[in-house]
Amino acid sequence: MTLVDATLAKPEVAARAKRSPADRRKARLGLLFAAPSAILLAAFYIIPIVVLCVFSLTDYQLGALSMRFVGLDNFSKAFSDPVFLRSLWNTVLYAVIVIPFGVLLALGVALLVYNRKKSRAFWEIAYFLPVTATLVAMATVWQFLLHPSLGPVNAAIKAFGLEPVAFLSNPALLIPTMALIGIWQVLGFNMVLFLAGLTAIPKDLHEAARLDGAKHPIDRFLTVTWPMLGPTTLFVVVTTSISAFKVFETVAVLTKGRFGSETLLFELYLEGFEYSNTGYAAALTLLFLVIVLILSIGQMVHMDRKVHY
Amino acid sequence: MAVLRKYLPHLVLALGAVPMLLPFYWMFLTSIRSPSEIFDVSLWPIPQHLDAAQNYARAASQVPMLRFMLNGVIVCGGILIVQVLTAVPAAYALAKLKFPARRLMMTLIIAALCVPMQALALPLFVGLAKTNLLNTYFAMMAPFFLSVFAIFLFHQSFRSYPDEVIEAARMDGFSEMEICWRLVLRGSLPSLAAFAVFSLVAHWNDLYWPMIVVTDTNLAPPPLGMLFFADVESGANYGALMAGAAIITAPMVICFLFARRHFIAGITMTGVK
User: Fold this and answer.
1) Domains present along chain B, CATH in parentheses
2) Partner-chain contact A288 B124, CB within 8 Å
3) Which residues of A, range 78-107, sit inside 8 Å of B by Cβ?
4) What class is the A82-294 domain?
5) Is the Cβ of B113 closer than 8 Å to some Cβ of chain A?
6) Cα–Cα distance between B168 and A186 in angstroms, integer?
7) Per residue in A241-274, pLDDT tens?
């Protein structure tokens, strides 16, 4: 041990003697290596955020020659704007459907898939396929599947002797239908996160629980699996809610916001890019950002734990 | 009872898999069926008339479907290359070179991780409009040139690279560029592969930003092209529409089937899509 220390000590001393030129070289190279990213960070994150905040306090419209400072008018306008409030309500409704089903169904599937040996790969592919597929294309397929007369879903409903369901023309069903597609898309993603969480649970714990009298699988699930999956579940809920608040593609394909089915992001798109109400859209964007940031606090904690400066 | 216990999970999984896979099956089936069978809602896999060629030809001629695919390749490839070129040196500097403002930069990167692209779209759009850059490949790619997620990921991975090896390489006269790209990155190839998958899938499937900056059909990437196509056909020819959907979906689905492990690792590295 001492021998190793002695041999290691020598270059250590040598390094210490010329530490400052070497360190200065490292600092210079570090700045050089980080510079392109730092410039892009300023150009595509920091400056836009500042500009966004400034816009939100004005009545700026893209193409207009002048703009006026209006204080917080845009924000107070937002909370009395029926269209914005409706989009907010629609998004919350969408999230309230997608989060519990998207998380609990994924947990159920993950528990079943986890114990399969030979067929695990097959089930993983079957449930994960929607995650990789282009949502715009698949939403078009869903539109066809749910068609009142041409789609097989309503044909099946009619075959059971029930009334056909107007998934895409009854305004009350638009958001739930989109939520159904949202669950379909997010399920495989969450399943994989749960599978990773399950793999991290030590096998001995189940054995110990069995010896302690948890004979039934449900008992073992409640005493071991579920508590051990706590952090995973929190993470899954956070990511699912963030992606739920960003729902856009299905609206763009299925309704284009007609029949009062606009969601937060779609309303933002319309105000900012179709109607060019830049100032007002900037205020709405900030509200959207605040919602996402509140939801990401959980995720940030998760990420931060992995970081050591 | 024992038989039931053994097969019940398979049964439940199979029942669940039906709605998961139904859209893919229906898309493919309709894309090879004759348009005259449109009122046939059965799921019988063999069509009476195989009109695959006609449907796919229509999808490729009605709108420039191949052009959309090419645009997608250009945009996704361009984004990925610049992302790697900027993120790898920055991550190396943050992980292995002590430079001033390192902590500040790391904090800003973690903060930026929480900011979704959609929140930055408005000022970026105004900037691109003011500089007459709308309807260009550059406009579609520029906001994604910096991936804070790539920097974060590579930083995590590079940190575990042994300092002794880097010191030894310096003694041997390797330049810092060579150390960064040839040694340290080589030790993190799984991270690079996972990030590449993540980036390609995310941008191949992205609709929001292209929809904002592109109105020219010839520049549309696949999702935007699909939207144009759906508007043109407006339900008139489902065979061709489904053929178009199949063409657009195929590259990612095929890659997924061949590189399942990489795909799952890449896509689930982050919840932030």
Assistant:
1) 76-227+250-267 (1.10.3720.10)
2) no
3) 105
4) mainly alpha
5) yes
6) 47
7) 988 999 998 998 888 878 888 899 999 999 989 8
